[in-house]
Specification:
Elements (H helix, E strand, L loop, with lengths): L3 H21 L7 H38 L30 H29 L5 H32 L7 H38 L2 H39 L7 H10 L2 H8 L18 H41 L19 H6 L2 H36 L9 H12 L2 H25 L1 E2 L3 E2 L8 H25 L4 H4 L7 H6 L6 H10 L4 H9 L2 H8 L10 H38 L4 H8 L3 H33 L8 H6 L10
Antiparallel strand pairs: 1-2
Helix pairs in contact: 1-2, 2-3, 2-13, 2-14, 3-4, 3-14, 5-11, 5-13, 5-14, 5-18, 6-9, 6-20, 7-9, 12-13, 13-14, 20-22
Amino acid sequence: MSGAALGLEIVFVFFLALFLLHRYGDFKKQHRLVIIATLLAWYLCFLIVFILPLDVSTTIYNRCKLAVNSSPAESNGSYVTLAPSKQKCFKPWSYIPNGIMPIFWRVVYWTSQFLTWILLPFMQSYARSGGFSITGKIKTALIENAIYYGTYLLIFGAFLIYVAVNPNFNLQWNQLQTIGIAAANTWGLFLLVLLLGYGLVEIPRSHWNGAKRGYLLMKTYFKVAKLMTEKADAEENLEDIMEEVRKVSECIKYNHPLRKCVDTILKKCPTEYQERMGRNMDDYEDFDERQNSYPSEKSLVKLHKQVIYSVQRHRRTQVQWQILLEQAFYLEDVAKNETSATRQFVHTFHSQEPENKIIQYFYTPTVEWYWECLLRPWFYRVLAVVLATFSVIVVWSECTFFSTKPVLSLFAVFIQLAEKTYNYIYIEMACFLTIFFLSICVYSTVFRIRVFNYYYLASHHQTDAYSLLFSGMLFCRLTPPLCLNFLGLTHMDATISHQKTQPTAYTSIMGSMRVLSFIADGFYIYYPMLVVILCIATYFSLGTRCLNLLGFQQFMGDSEMTSDLIDEGKELIRREKRKRQRQEEGENRRREWKERYGNRDDSTRNRAVHTDQKESSFTETNANRPLSKYTRSNGRTERDRIELLQDAEPLDFNADFVNDDPLESDSGR
């Protein structure tokens, strides 16, 4: 089994990263280099989290062998051996041979650092560039990153000059490498504690609130109202950008040198706009004979960038709108079915996506009713209590992990108890659950945060290339300090335990932080205590209240603005439900007409036309009745379809109340 566990986890983590990237990214529309770079960044970060417990168990086994095989005279060497146990050192099932883990960690760490500090920032600028050629995009990316790279080179150059001039410093290459790693980990730890303090409180609270049906429904109404405003703004922005594209397309004709750039912009526009603009391009003019001013290539690059952004934002809001509507309809169905006497879950609307037959066979309406109305709230409450317990343990350990005598960190206590009996399975499970929970708290915050419209991870393949690359940068910068923090909580880091025991392969790659004592003995130990203040601020929603005061509407139960948005969202859901009901009624009427009159033989109809006048008149009269019925039904269905396609104002419901009456007659009828 040597190395088999490592190989299995490498394969499993790859498919896990691929699955998550497929959920958020779009493999068909986004550039392959963006997909590959983001996948590599996510894969390396997840790999570090999953492989680190194997490194811990292998290190404990190596310490055991060293303690058993060493003599008292050898105990004064580079390592202080532990007291040999009476039990024999059993090799763990996931033991990794010596020499593999250091090479593995060195490749993974330096590849992730190359991605986060050099490649991914460059690819971000390349992805957002509006250039029409690869050379133009590379030039734009280099110019945008010149300040970014220049700042780091200036700081590093000043540090090297200071070290060379000062005679008190005699640093070697390994020490300079350790200083660079410490600087990167310090920046990552600063951001890590901020995200961890939010996730430790918000994750248990979100699961506890998930058991409250009324709470979830009100929050969904709030999201609907906010998304409607964003959706209307995206549509208006797209209309303005398309108007500029139309003017440019009419100005620059086929024989203009910049026409290829205009055609590239038109390909990025939605299909309906491309067809509309193509109708006015039948003429052929010589641009040299006109005295009008033409847009420059620089302005076309800017317009191209705006088109890409506006189209992506419009598509994302449309998809999110449909998803949020389905969620609101489902929560309303759950609220209605809670009082059902038949204990059969009844949906208002059928699912638009085909259901799996296996899931449909086992997940019957009865099973769905018991799960959604009875079991799921209790399951979420129990899960919230377990997660809250983990959060309390993490906060306590973050504040006490520097204490070695006595050992106050609970994670260190658990690992040391298992180390005495060499229960490697328990050690690996405890390490995996600990680092997995820390990763969930940090990574879930990365997936939740939104920086206006520049960074936003949207599911259902709606995340743009810039946000995907930015998330890869964050993961690569947060994972190394996260792992060092985990090793400190379990006292597997010699810098924290103050023992000259054999270090893990991961900490040996990081180097000895004693080169910078003020970071090793100060910042790394006392800064994580700030997580207590951040947890208290998150519990009382201080950040949410500050954003609400600044004008960014946040969901707060005691806010008047929140109540208004909830009422607005409820009215929007009611209107969309009426539209969908009318649409289903129209489809049912068309289906019934096809079943009644769709199979009529054409030959019978043709023979009836050539009969005598009296039979012809009689046949025509009878034939017109169902035809007129179909015409009225079709007209009504067409009118419903027109109502669905019309864009109404998000806050004006009076017009919808007037137009929603299906019995209201119009001029055509």
